[in-house]
Amino acid sequence: MNKDLRAIQENGRCSSEGEHEWFFSERPADMARALEVCAGCDLRVRCLQVALSEGHDWGVWGGVIFWDGQPFHRRRGRGRPSHSDKGLPLEADVSQLWELVKSA
Asked: How many Cβ atoms are within 10 Å of 2's Cβ, its own excluded?
């Protein structure tokens, strides 16, 4: 197992949460809860870097939803964002995610 992944599993906020299936669920409510957990994690960037470098297909990694190997970001609609959309990531591609990881 990758030493970075092991450190994340042992020290990330996800390690203290009892519901690990949130991070690999298809239910929007579960994924939203996983994103909330990731939002306050100090290892978020490291986790995202592991997911990108290892090509993870599925789950929430570093606050990003991976579906069929592609990072999924919610695109905000026109106009002012609703309160429930506050803090949600905007659309990005893998190269943009890599730039964010490198600059962190």
From this structure: 11
DSSP secondary structure letter of residue 64? E
Q: Determine the structural domain holding residue 50 and report its residue range.
A: 3-103
Total count of domains within the chain: 1
Q: How far is CA 93 from the centre of its chain?
A: 14
C-alpha dihedral, 50 to 52 to 68 to 77, nearest 10°: 110
Cβ atoms 72, 65 nearer than 8 A: yes
Per the CB < 8 A criterion, the answer to whether 51 and 64 are in contact is yes
Q: How confident is the model at residue 93 (pLDDT cuts 50, 70, 90)?
A: low
Diameter of the chain measured on Cα atoms: 45
Helix count (H) and strand count (E) of the chain?
5, 3
Mean pLDDT of the 76-94 span:
59
Tokens describing residue 69: 């190997």
Whether this prediction's pTM lies above 0.70 is answered by no
Structure tokens at 59: 């789950």
